[in-house]
Amino acid sequence: MVDIATRVYNHKWKIDPIVRSLIDTDFYKLLMCQSVYRNKPDTTVAFSLINRSKDIRLAEMVDEGELREQLDHVRSLSLSRGESTWMRGNMFYGKRQMFRSDFMEWFENLRLPAYHLEKHDGQYELSFEGSWPEVMLWEIPALAILMELRSRAVINSMKKFELQVLYARAMTKLWEKIKRLQPLEGLKVADFGTRRRHSYLWQDWCVQAMMEGLGDKFPGTSNCHIAMQRDLEAVGTNAHELPMVYSALANTDEELAQAPYDVLRDWQDEHDGNLRIILPDTYGTKGFLDRAPDWLAGWTGIRIDSGDPATGAETAIDWWLSKGEDPTQKLVIFSDGLDTDKIIELHQQFAGRVRTSFGWGTLLTNDFRGLTDGDSLAPFSLVCKANSANGKPTVKLSDNPNKAMGPDEEIARYKRVFGVGVQEKMDVLV
């Protein structure tokens, strides 16, 4: 077990690059990358970093030279032989050779493309533009780098015993959460915390704590590198990026209305079983399900990632019933801003009605709230999203209008096309 406090104090992080590998990323990114490589390889996409927590003035906290050093380090990375062997030969979701040979040959030769970095009004403007399969792999490393550099900026002034106490308190805090989850029968809760983790070392510690504390209730981690190192299942399916880009490429309102289903038709061609999970909230869950083709009702489950989670699950249950499906055989994955209280509440509320699983993110791998003066290590909301495809803007509506993205006129158009009515605003915690 790594003594994190001592490592931080003795080395000031110099021996620890923030991103250690091209597979120090979320599993769903690699699955989506293969799908994009197969279906839309020539699409040009731009991504940009968005700090929703404007009070965290990253450009005033994080040294630009350090940021560039970490970004440049990621550009120097390539897939190692062991990592390639793990991807080619490992079993994922019960299937061998999940990643096809042509994709693996491409990935083994990949170096991430250039980035663009500027400062504006106390924030970093970090963006990436190029071939979709290449630039999409910047999202998770970019977020992990900014989050950890902010953590380092706060911790750098702490002395040895202060650091030991900080991490001891953080460990105790997480272990108390785990103890509360232990009695829940049938619980499944995975680590989804890569993108906004406190640090790589801390995420790895959290994963080991979950392994010991929850046993079979902990099905795995979204982080491929940690999954490989700890001999765990790598978990994850797909994200909003796919329908956002497919929709931006649509030429007419009719094509736009069909785009989210085109994504899932392409996905169905490649995956089955527990990888057939619908993410319905990109342009409003209810409208998505109301217009969904019948074949989607046969999919394994749904992931709820915005809005009120209980409402989203009830909407899914009603939809399955209307399609003649048995909800007790379906899987609902909750993944938005979860912490222990909400996990317990939702697990108990839907026990026996659906199968539930939880993707525990930022408040698993970065909950240092209340542990420093001024709450200087509290997590904040940082995202990196596709903002254009072939020069056309992308849009995300979400079930929470506070998560909406895109030009105002395009948001209005998408609301009209997808029949999105009045939505309830909810705080975006992380």
TrEMBL record:
Catalytic EC class: ligase
Entry's Gene Ontology molecular function annotations: glycosyltransferase activity; nicotinate phosphoribosyltransferase activity
All residue ranges annotated as the Nicotinate/nicotinamide phosphoribosyltransferase domain in the record: 188-421
UniProt GO cellular component terms: cytosol
Enzyme Commission number(s): 6.3.4.21
Pathway this chain belongs to: Cofactor biosynthesis; NAD(+) biosynthesis; nicotinate D-ribonucleotide from nicotinate: step 1/1
Catalytic activity field: 5-phospho-alpha-D-ribose 1-diphosphate + nicotinate + ATP + H2O = nicotinate beta-D-ribonucleotide + ADP + phosphate + diphosphate
PTM (free text): Transiently phosphorylated on a His residue during the reaction cycle. Phosphorylation strongly increases the affinity for substrates and increases the rate of nicotinate D-ribonucleotide production. Dephosphorylation regenerates the low-affinity form of the enzyme, leading to product release.
GO terms, biological process: NAD+ biosynthetic process via the salvage pathway
Cross-referenced Pfam families: NAPRTase (PF04095), NAPRTase_N (PF17767)
Chain positions found as Phosphohistidine: 240
Family: Belongs to the NAPRTase family.
Entry-linked PANTHER family: NICOTINATE PHOSPHORIBOSYLTRANSFERASE
Protein name: Nicotinate phosphoribosyltransferase
Organism of derivation: Roseibium polysiphoniae
Taxonomy of the source species: Bacteria, Pseudomonadati, Pseudomonadota, Alphaproteobacteria, Hyphomicrobiales
